Automatic annotation (TrEMBL):
InterPro entries: DUF2254_membrane (IPR018723). It comes from Thalassotalea marina. The chain crosses the membrane at residues 21-40, 68-93, 114-133, 145-165. This is DUF2254 domain-containing protein. Signal peptide: none annotated.
Amino acid sequence: MKPSLLSAQIKKLLDLIQTSFWFVPVLCIFTSFLAVYFCYQLDKSLWQTNNSILKTLYNISPDNASSLLSSIATSVITMTSIAFSMIVVTLTLASSQFGPRLLRTFMQDKKNQWALGSLVATFSYCLALIRLASTNQDSGFVPGIGLTLASILAVIAVFILVFLIHHVAVSIQAESVVAQCWQCLKKDIDRLFPAAQNKEQHSHHTLVWDKNLSPHPLISQHNGYIQLIDYQGLMAALEQHHAGAELDIKSGNYVIAGQCIGTLYWPDDKQEQPPKDLLNSHLVSGKNRTPIQDPEFAINQLVEIALRALSPSINDPFTAILCINRLGSALRKTAERSFPETLLFDSNNTIRIKRNVVDYQGLVKAACDQIRQNSMPHPSVVIAFIDMLTQVATNLKRVNYQHALVEQAQMIVDGACNDKLHPNDQQDIISKLQTIHAAVNSNH
């Protein structure tokens, strides 16, 4: 496997680990076995000590030690079952209230993962220590240090359970869910959109397919969502074959096997046919979207929460307004960043890849279109929506970015005027449109 593609696969694996409930508990269980081993070695060297302080650790019979460890293990596994039940109930409520795609946000909560890991590790520790204590009953050996650590872990487990109850109760609140989605979105923006900087000026822009190259369709061999595209490896392969490529897809798109996903420009003087898997071997696909290369993923999570809040069954405009405000922060933050380049140059300043990338206008549409289409029955949401667009547009320097926001505000007003709203509500909405026009014009 090529190094760049291996790096892409590792990124996918790390993303799966972050959103799993098994990795941290397995890590904690492994650590508990190591703790048992070290405590056992320490106990073997100290259990017949004459030190009065250390001797109190071993002032218990092997039978009582085994009974105590058994009681701790039983209590901890009961607390673990309660913790798992709470988390399952939370996931069920989150799925029905905020949408099934929000389960990813709850599953990657490190506090839940470490709480569960600590509980199952304490149970595993006690089981392993019981085995050691039972094996050495004839010799009168008592794992005093291990038993003391087990008692401390049992007390800590009680506090962990109380903490988990509090954390679950807080995390299921709408404000916490929206804030957590915003934190994920902010991390994605920082990772995918670097700070604005002066772009490298290329002395010439030579399209490799301006030369003697013939176009060949690139056919998808995948069924699923594009999670990663290995542009570095694809560039190296194209440069090796003196070819070029124009991609019609980007991370987050769903592709069907047999679908044309781009065009390969292949040298006419080559006797060999272009490899069919030239692009497909540099794609990582899956059954769902991931935020690894997809900046719209977290935006869609906030949009989904807002849409469910605006549905007749839930009818919670306050949550929708929370999402709109967070989306406004995202649009303001991304406006200050550098977006991915459409054209990718090789080492000779020759354009070898023309790709489909997300731009600011695309992010605005992803953040606004569906909410705008479903917010008409809620004048308060519409007014908050235009207020958000006004706040963002007022602080932008690029005219094309401002135009995308003003266009959304205009469509909101057009929809509100065509909808059956009270004339006073319509007048409030129209005045908000005048405000955003005035704010944008004052900056020119």
